[in-house]
Design brief:
heterodimer, A: 211 residues, alpha/beta, Rossmann fold, eight-stranded mixed sheet, 6 helices, 13 strands, B: 256 residues, TIM Barrel, eight-stranded parallel barrel, two-stranded antiparallel ribbon, globular
Chain lengths: 211, 256
Amino acid sequence: MTTHSRTITLIDYGAGNVPSVERALQKLGAETTRAHSSEQIESATALILPGVGHFAALIRALDEHNLRSPLLATFERGVPFLGICLGLQALYDGSEEAPDLPGLAIVPGQIVALPTNVKLPHMGWNQLEVKPRATPSQLLRAIPSDAHFYFAHSYAALPSQQKAGTVATCTHGSEFVAVFERNNIHAVQFHPEKSGTPGAQLLQNFLALAA
Amino acid sequence: MTLAHRIIPCLDTDGARVVKGVNFVGLRDAGDPVALAARYNSEGADELVVLDIAASRDRRPTFLYTIRRVADELAIPLTAGGGIRTLEDARAVVRAGADKITVNTAAVHRPELISELSKEFGAQAVVLAIDAKRTDSENHWQVRIRGGHDATTLDAIEWAKQGVAAGAGEILLTSVDRDGTQKGFDVPLTAAISHAVTVPVIASGGAKLPEHFAEIFREGHADAALAASIFHDSIQPIRDLKNYLAAEKIEVRLSC
């Protein structure tokens, strides 16, 4: 049993899958707290941005609560960060789902709609294609390469836009970014809190790098 | 590397206990939802559906408490429903730990409920449950409501399309004709709905044998298949079912 010295701050913007993520982390023995204010984010030592639903709901909530600039400041300070689902999409410049709203823009590129030649939403369990990299993925450590993760989304990031940070992709209609890592910034398109044993291992890996 | 076909156990509850019956009648006790949820989570279920089939206002707090305790046991998605009539009903279910909400009778009475839910939670969280019964004419199914009891004038295919246009992200399709019969899923119904809509379809009603699951995935083009009593009574262990499907070259999630 690993002990975790840092409290994990979950950004709670009133919507999304915060309770599920919280429950999954607590099962792993982590201390969690929910942040609603810029002060709470400024003092965070490890952050998770959960999310599910509409891109606009997340971005509007971040801006209404004035969380954008404190969040960008934590990225700068090197605070370990994990974005989940919409929490990954929010890192990009913007999304076709809400073209007028700017994303956090720390990763270049647009979130696009998955092609309509497949059933949408992309809903259910799918596998990853891990990309060859100089440094092995921290998030995917000790996870079998054929593991399934649970996805529930209709929009995604194309890997061509940000090759450097793309650790693993998934394919549903087109290939899209499933796992992103760049320094302290980590993000996944699927829901580790709903992805059984491999999902728990991924959260455990984040706890370990945030410890 | 393709999307796995999902196997989904369903817990029909009276709020607190799992109940079961044939063709929606003759209910009897089938166990503790929390214990069953824990078992299915570890046996490789891909998702769990919990329904309040009594759906009475008095039992609502009990049902919400059940959802909370079930959610605590799961590392897989949870869909909950039964008696959701308003946005506020849905919020309570989501707060209790459901990832998706399913609506049925209330959406037939007031289709705007679907778009209200979709706007608040996203299409991926809104499951339109349709109970369909074959009519005398070829390839035509009528929507039934109130747990399959009452007839409507709605055509099931048209209703499915309308629901998706309104923002449903998934269809949970139950064949009233097959439900409880253990004769196999309704292949023509499921294929017809699956071809008519752009969202995933969960087939329900009539499953017993592993062959029934293979058939509904191959010929019914279902994205997921749901069953209740065959899982509760361990007539068909989930792991054996998935091994069978994998041997049949049907994509499933084996390790959990």
